[in-house]
Amino acid sequence: MAYIPSHALAGLRNYKYKGVDKSLISNYVLNPFWNWFVTLWPEWVAPNMITLSGLAFVLINFATLSFYDPTYLTARGGATSPPNWVYFTWAAGLFLYQTFDAIDGKQARRTGMAGPLGEMFDHGCDALNTTLGVILACYALNLGRSWWTFASQVATLANFYLTTWEEYHTGQLYLGIFSGPVEGILMIVIIFIITGFTGPALWDQKILSLTRLENVEWIASRVPNLAINVCFMLFAGVGLAFNIITSYTNVFKARRTSQKYVVKPLLYLLPFPASVLVQVAWLNQPSLRNSDIINSPAFVPFLCAWGLQFAHVVGRMIIAHVTSQPFPVWDPMYIWSIIGAIDANMPFLFDRPPLIQHSPERTERFVYVVLVVAFVTYARFVMLVVSDITDYLGIACLTVRKRDANGVWKSAVGMRMRPTEKRGLLD
Questions:
Q1: What average pLDDT does this structure show over 132-161?
Q2: Where do the TM regions start and end (predicted)?
Q3: What mean pLDDT value characterizes the chain?
Q4: Which of 59, 326, 355, 386 is buried deepest, with most CB atoms within 10 A?
């Protein structure tokens, strides 16, 4: 399929990134550090290479989980936690990911390589990090294979979908006082650090018992004594509700200013909850109680397959935004999940056993098939889109090069903006 039709390529030259960041931590603490850190990079380093290097830190984090606790990914039953020092490496890796993700745009402006390709590349890596980050964070919180981990995936992907949906309808990326890319990541970094000192078992303790507030009758009689990790999940739910209200408020204002329908954008939110319902239906297998996906080694591959499907969805949303195309409502990647959901619920729908997933082993194999298909499809999407954008704009993806008027490749550093255009590059 053509992700960018020929008639939409012209929109790439008209695209200009717009962003608003109201985070106090970002503006007064991290941004000065980022402005200094980007100056350490030579101008011949491509911004997309910085983005890709940042994602590599998260992949290394995931690889250490696979190395120290392979049973979590490959076997049934309980898992053994990795050494506590590993969580410190996860904290460092995630913080470096955040730092690299923050400076790639600054490097793009330094080298004159800012444009739609950078936004697509940046958001694509963010989408992949979202799922891997959920798996690692929930593992550190000792949630393991559970519906809480699934709920965390839902909340995290929903926030990402909301941000992309909002950017499509407002024309700018909006980060509020508390946002996932800044405060959310820092919160997970702190969780990793605490887990490194105490181990994951800390998060199973009851919050009122740990704080000894259960001895205060007024509090104990009104506040449920929930586990700390459950409290984090509830906090994520409150944050999601707040982001829904904030995102729609921004879209409402933008649409009303441009005298467009203010209700129609809400319809474009429906594909995400519909996809969540499909995943829930697939996880909830009537014929395999206590042996279904959520209790098997297929759970992490299931989350990864869903994450790749989601990355494909938001990738198409970003392409639609930068090329001024219609909002993509349907994505064919979800066909495989729909097949899995219908097949898993054959006993409920048609009073007959599943055709594919009639045993735990067959279910696991099918999940891995969906994971492979999702990976190949998303990889193809990235290659085709990168090829279309670089060919049309005459730029390279992972090197600082541009084609001049004669079609000759030259360093973009020597072709970048005039000095008067460099003011405020790091802002």
A1: 92
A2: 44-65, 184-203, 223-245, 266-284, 296-315, 327-346, 366-386
A3: 87
A4: 386
**How, if at all, do strands 19-21 and 409-411 pair?**
unpaired
Which amino acid appears at position 18 of this protein? K
Separation between Cα atoms, residue 112 and residue 92, nearest integer Å: 30
Of residues 71 and 388, which shows the higher confidence score? 388
Exposure class string for 382-401: b at 16+ Cβ within 10 A, else e: beebbebbbebbebbbebbb
Cα separation, 163 vs 63, in Å, equals 28
Write the pLDDT tens digit of every residue in 246-278.
Answer: 888 889 988 888 888 888 889 999 999 999 999
DSSP 248-270: HHHHHHHHHHTT--SSHHHHTTT
Say if residues 154 and 275 touch (Cβ distance below 8 Å): no
What's the angle, vertex CA 126, arms to CA 196 and CA 168, rounded to 5?
145
CA–CA distance, 268 with 247 (Å, rounded to integer):
13
b/e 189-220 (16+ beta carbons within 10 angstroms → b): bebbbbbbeeebebbeebbbeeeeeeeeeeee
Per cent of the chain over pLDDT 70 is 93
3-state secondary structure of 400: coil
Check if 123 is active-site.
Answer: yes
Cβ neighbours of residue 143 closer than 8 Å, sequence gap 6 or more: 149, 152, 203, 229, 233
Question: What is the distance between the alpha carbons of residues 214 and 354, in angstroms, rounded to a whole number?
Answer: 48
The mean per-residue pLDDT over the stretch 286-296 comes to 68
Q: Pick the catalytic residue from 7, 123, 321, 358.
A: 123
pLDDT class of 376 with cuts at 50, 70, 90: very high
Q: What is the pLDDT of residues 318-368, one digit of tens each?
A: 999 999 899 999 999 999 999 999 998 888 888 888 899 888 889 999 999
